[in-house]
Write a structure and sequence with these properties.
The protein is α/β, with parallel strands linked by helices. About 20% of the residues lie in helices and about 15% in strands. The chain contains 4 helices and 6 strands, in the order ββαβαββαβα. It is elongated, with a radius of gyration of 24 Å.
Length: about 180
């Protein structure tokens, strides 16, 4: 909520802290403030701790002041129950870091989605960090289950095209 923000927002999983599950972490979104010249980056201990406690921290990415881990850790130490990192570009990415000291889930969103949220801050913006419901079926198609791909690849063996000389002869098979 509010209704003009309702719906699923594509996120990048930052891959540290607890895994995001089908049990939602829901709370009001509050922009982090560390009292520095770039307060929404959260590189220093949080100054709006009472306001952030029990809420989801909105944190800007950017600058070389500190790492994303430091920003999320500062939000966690201020009592946040989750963290949303606003990417400075219109794309999302994932990070393969796995430190043990994180206890709150974190995601990254595009700058476009972040701007929409920032416009509504102060009016009780509530979000849930949750795995979207399963829609059934695979997310990506498995080529080994597509008969046209399987028959195409076997045709390479029939014509000896791109298979090497005698690589399909019985004498060359493994185990003979």
């Amino acid at each position: 909520s509010p209704s003009n923000l309702a719906g699923i927002v594509e996120t990048g999983y930052i891959n540290f802290g607890p895994p995001i599950t089908n049990i939602p972490v829901t709370g009001e979104i509050i922009e982090i403030n560390d009292g520095s010249s770039h307060p929404s980056r959260g590189c220093y201990p949080v100054t709006n701790q009472p306001e952030l406690a029990g809420k989801i921290a909105l944190i800007d990415r950017g600058g070389d002041d500190c790492s994303i881990k430091t920003r999320v850790y500062n939000a966690q130490e201020a009592g946040a129950i989750g963290a949303i990192i606003c990417n400075y570009a219109n794309y999302i990415e994932s990070f393969g870091i796995q430190p043990e000291e994180f206890t709150i889930p974190s995601v990254m969103i595009s700058s476009v989605d972040c701007s929409r949220i920032k416009l509504a801050l102060g009016s009780g913006v509530v979000a849930s960090i949750v795995v979207p419901p399963d829609t059934g079926g695979p997310v990506e198609h498995d080529g080994s289950l597509d008969n046209s791909i399987v028959s195409h690849e076997y045709a390479h063996g029939i014509t000896n095209r791109l298979t090497g000389i005698n690589c399909l002869s019985p004498n060359e098979m493994i185990g003979d």
